[in-house]
Write a structure and sequence with these properties.
Length: about 525
């Protein structure tokens, strides 16, 4: 028969404990507790293994206990030297004892042996408070190497009922990654193996965004972020490696790896994350600049030189990069587009490099119109009109080739794309084709008023009209094209059609107002 266990634990004073006693065990923590325990057989909680925490070591002794334990941390309480404060400290340690005991009922479990403790009197000059000289009370967190990772400037009394030990541990593991990789970045003799590990560690550092994993207290409605307790703390360890040094070391690492015959899927993942600025540069320097750097182009060269093997392994095993081939393609294309976007102020050299890599990608997928369409979409963010026209003409001719109708050709390429992208939907594929025609026609309007180019754009849109379900956007663009082509009556008719179709679609007032203004400009010759 199933047994039910409900326990309410209320900790009382620790006056019976003294610094001389030197340790806390699970049983001793319960010595002065009030418990209500209900079980079917009225049993009490009697673990086979009893957790014991020594609490009276000095700083050096406590630190020495974890020096060979890289996954353990020392919590240093620095506070007033009186009985009340020390009892508060014992209460704090006792909460950890209770939490740890839950994981060690039947025996010792190393993965849950996470913290050691020591209490430092704030009059004790033997303890070097390196992170802040003037401080009355604090709780500091040290790694096995003696680096202060974080410190909270507050008395232990404020943390007596702390219970988020698991969250704290994860945060410290995360913080310790920064220390580990920083020391490898700054060391002069770091091997290529260790440098690889440094970048893998750095890429694995969690960088919590505002709003991630938040909860709200039901009574106060105060927002609580349980997943990054150390947000409230000050960083004790400061990164010593400069951004320039780390990026140069990353470039050198990729160049060395390019000479090796064996691929490391972890490094490939790190490259992909870094290209999208979700890798080490964000974790270490909060990098947000989307423009590809010199090292990124070196990394892209590495990807493309090994692209066939990477794709083969990705197709065979999703876990190789934890993405499918379709996602891999977009993880390359999106950073290239960002670098081509003139709003990001790229150099002409970077734009040309990005264009060249798009051509390399298309060469690997000659029948993949989605890559081709995304390249054209990316070109619409540039001033590269010659490149744009050449590629869109080539793309559009696949569908409107005169020998077969548009729908038949769309269906042909849709089914080819569907083979590698199960999520692709026919209606979306068709509407995106029309949307790209509008983007392309607008690009022409913004970059040239030459009649031969405008005539091409009119052809693109009029060819798409039969499959355009909403039509108002195409009619609005056509009205401008005809206006600049010198056919005002057609332009006005198209502007009226745009308004009529927009009303049928019940578009918002702002868009409808823009269409009305477009008609007025055509009528009054104010374009």
């Amino acid at each position: 028969m199933m047994k039910f266990f409900i326990a309410l634990i209320v900790l009382s004073s620790y006056n019976s404990f003294s610094q001389e006693k030197g340790h806390l065990t699970y049983k001793e923590v319960f010595q002065d507790t009030t418990r209500i325990i209900l079980t079917e057989e009225n049993n009490t909680y009697q673990p086979d293994y009893v957790v014991t925490i020594k609490h009276d070591r000095n700083f050096n002794e406590a630190l020495n206990t974890i020096k060979n334990e890289p996954k353990k941390f020392l919590i240093v309480v620095y506070d007033a030297p009186n009985i009340e404060t020390y009892n508060n400290y014992l209460h704090y340690v006792g909460n950890y004892v209770l939490d740890t005991q839950r994981h060690m009922y039947y025996g010792y479990e190393k993965e849950f042996d996470r913290f050691e403790f020591c209490f430092i009197k704030n009059t004790d000059k033997a303890y070097t408070n390196t992170f802040k000289k003037q401080m009355n009370a604090s709780i500091a967190y040290y790694n096995a190497s003696g680096d202060c990772l974080y410190y909270l400037e507050r008395p232990v009394a404020a943390e007596m009922e702390f219970y988020e030990w698991d969250t704290l541990y994860k945060d410290l593991i995360n913080a310790n990654k920064l220390v580990t990789c920083d020391k490898l970045f700054t060391a002069e003799n770091t091997s290529i193996k260790d440098m690889k590990n440094a970048f893998l560690i750095a890429s694995d550092i969690n960088h919590w965004e505002t709003g991630d994993f938040i909860m709200a207290d039901e009574e106060t409605e105060e927002t609580l972020n349980y997943y990054n307790y150390l947000d409230e703390a000050e960083q004790g360890y400061q990164l010593k490696a400069s951004k320039e040094l780390v990026i140069q070391r990353w470039k050198n690492t990729i160049e060395i790896l390019a000479k090796e015959s064996t691929l490391d899927n972890r490094i490939i993942s790190a490259i992909i994350n870094e290209l999208s600025r979700q890798g080490f540069s964000k974790a270490l320097f909060n990098e947000s600049n989307k423009l590809l750097r010199e090292d990124d182009f070196v990394a892209l060269a590495y990807l493309f030189n090994n692209y066939d093997e990477i794709v083969t392994k990705t197709r065979a095993d999703y876990d190789y990069l934890y993405m499918n081939e379709h996602s891999l393609i977009y993880s390359i294309m999106i950073p290239l587009r960002e670098t081509m976007d003139k709003d990001n102020q790229p150099s002409n050299e970077s734009v040309q490099k990005a264009i060249n890599y798009f051509h390399k990608l298309m060469a690997n997928y000659e029948e993949n119109t989605i890559i081709e369409s995304y390249f054209i979409y990316s070109l619409s963010f540039t001033d590269e009109i010659t490149e744009f026209l050449k590629n869109y003409d080539h793309y559009f001719a696949k569908y409107a080739n005169g020998s077969t109708n548009l729908i038949t050709n769309l269906d042909k390429y849709y089914n080819l794309e569907k083979e590698s992208n199960d999520a692709l939907q026919w209606e979306n594929y068709k509407s995106e084709f029309v949307a790209l025609a509008n983007i392309s026609a607008t690009f022409i309007l913004n970059h040239s008023k030459e009649k031969d180019k405008i005539q091409k754009a009119i052809y693109w849109l009029e060819t798409c009209l039969p499959i355009d379900e909403k039509k108002y956007e195409s009619f609005a663009t056509l009205s401008k094209l005809y206006y600049f082509f010198g056919e005002k009556e057609k332009a006005l008719a198209m502007a009226v059609n745009a308004i009529d179709y927009a009303k049928k679609e019940a578009v918002d007032e702002e868009l409808l107002s823009e269409l009305v203004k477009n008609k007025k400009k055509i009528k009054e010759n104010t374009y």
